[in-house]
Design a protein that fits this description.
Number of strands: 15
Number of helices: 10
Largest sheet: 9 strands, mixed
CATH topology: UDP-N-acetylmuramoyl-L-alanine:D-glutamate ligase
CATH class: Alpha Beta
CATH architecture: 3-Layer(aba) Sandwich
CATH superfamily: Ribokinase
Distance between the termini: 27 Å
Length: 337
């Protein structure tokens, strides 16, 4: 078979893949967050400090972190259940309500009264983010909470086609997850967006997706990125690895020696927040529909291009992906990273 020099995504072919992933059952486990946006106008400088005074005009709430991955899956047509932790507080209740409104099953969410729901509050004035306030706990979960998570996760995995672990290093991902997933590994497509501190948890996963900074930390910054990616595939026994490069696209690594760069699709960018969640959700569904690793990453690249054209942590639909087609993405076989 001739070596591929480019990926061509034609509408008819991608429509078939989109139909193929409809109603697939996906479990998302990871760090749940509530995203709060405060939109306003900066009219003057505060007399108390050299900072702008923002007059609040409206607030918007959405599911972030693992919740945003779940929302993307649901909008793309999958049947989604999410497993994670919230606090016994108003943000936690709002987050569960938001997920339910997005047709995400929340029965495996555990309420932990000892920690707050993670909230990211972004203050936006004149279409520009001027500040972000985070409320969170990064402490490990208690044995009681872990026991509840194990029980609920096992139940929802029984009918799943895939599991996605969305790790934001807020305390949920740990060795207990490896223990739970071992009996299911033969029958589940396992993908994840890991953080460097938890990388050992993801040994044996099929596909991982992480950004350049996260990948480089795998070998403590030693060696070029292409060498780090190849080492990660070998040491973690992965089928494939995606290292996202922002405006430069992504690098793909495979256990068969694959090492190739896929360019980003050029669009007008308004907000990159949440684009990684969109990429991970789409690449997982594309793989479930029978796509090759290269084609799945290309479809996810188009999905990410669609979502960065929106303001805020946003989601994408199959129709929005199709709207950007057809596209041709030339492959760079010898990336200098």
């Amino acid at each position: 078979m001739a070596e591929r020099r480019e990926i061509v995504l034609e509408r008819k072919k991608v429509e078939k893949w989109v139909r193929g992933w409809q109603k697939k059952r996906v479990v998302v486990v990871g760090d749940l967050m509530l995203d709060e946006y405060i939109f306003g106008t900066a009219e003057r400088i505060s007399p108390e400090a050299p900072v702008p005074v923002i007059r609040c005009e409206k607030r918007h709430y959405g599911a972030g972190g693992a919740g945003n991955t779940a929302r993307n899956l649901s909008r793309l047509g999958a049947q989604v259940a999410v497993c994670g932790v919230v606090g016994d507080d108003e943000p936690g209740r709002r987050l569960i309500q938001t997920l339910n409104e997005d047709q995400v099953e929340t029965s495996a969410i555990v309420c932990d009264p000892t920690r707050p729901t993670t909230v990211k509050t972004r203050i936006v004035a004149h279409h520009q983010q001027v500040a972000r306030l985070d409320v969170e706990s990064r402490q490990p979960l208690s044995a009681t909470i872990v026991s509840l998570l194990k029980d609920r996760l096992q139940k929802i995995l029984l009918q799943a086609n895939s599991i996605i672990v969305s790790d934001y290093a807020k305390g949920l991902v740990g060795g207990w997850l490896t223990e739970i997933l071992q009996p299911f590994a033969a029958n589940l497509l396992m993908t994840a967006g890991p953080k460097p501190s938890n990388m050992s948890v993801f040994k044996g996963f099929h596909y991982l997706s992480l950004n350049r900074t996260e990948a480089l930390s795998f070998l403590n910054g030693a060696g070029p990125l292409w060498e780090v990616g190849s080492a990660m595939v070998a040491q973690l026994s992965l089928h494939g690895l995606v290292v996202t490069l922002g405006g430069d696209g992504c690098l793909l690594f495979g256990r068969n020696g694959l090492r190739v760069q896929v360019p980003a699709l050029r669009v007008q960018v308004y907000d990159v927040a949440g684009a990684g969640d969109t990429f991970l959700a789409t690449v997982t569904l594309a793989l479930l529909s029978g796509c090759s690793f290269l084609d799945a990453a290309a479809v996810a690249t188009v999905a990410a291009a669609s979502v960065v054209r929106k303001v805020g942590v946003a989601t994408v639909t199959g129709d929005e992906i199709l709207h950007l087609l057809p596209v041709r993405l030339p492959l760079k076989k010898d990336p200098c990273w």
